[in-house]
Predict the structure.
Amino acid sequence: MLYCAVKHWCKLTNELNQVINIELAQLDLLLKTYAGLIDRVQQQTPDVVELAALATVLHSYYNGAESIFLAVARYLDMQVPEGTRWHREVLAQVARPTARRPALLTSPLEVRLTVYLAFRHYFRHSYAFTLDWARLEPLVRELPTLHAALRVELKVFQGFLTTEPDVS
């Protein structure tokens, strides 16, 4: 492990790294748990119960990713958005570099995640019987590739977290 010249910075980045690892493990487990269902609906249209389960998976997935975004905002930016648009604002915030850190997400991944954020909002304000497979299908189909992309970008960001701060 590197000697860290700035103890406070190292404490923050170590804690943030732990949060990212925990949330990433949870996201991995979520996808592993529902892999059979996600695979099955590639071949056949889900029934109403499967549709509700898939909607819950999409909602849970975005919430897990958002937990990482909030941790970055809290630990490194020292500023978490507030108000009615905070969900959208925290996604935009972590996708921009700051003086303390690089961008957590590339612009293409931010755009892809925005669609999941919109679904999260829809899910939280609708009834399960209004769920529509035509709306969920592209999100469910892309979820494994979205997760792979998010995992890669998080690992790149974690590389930044483990570098020695410049104290000159």
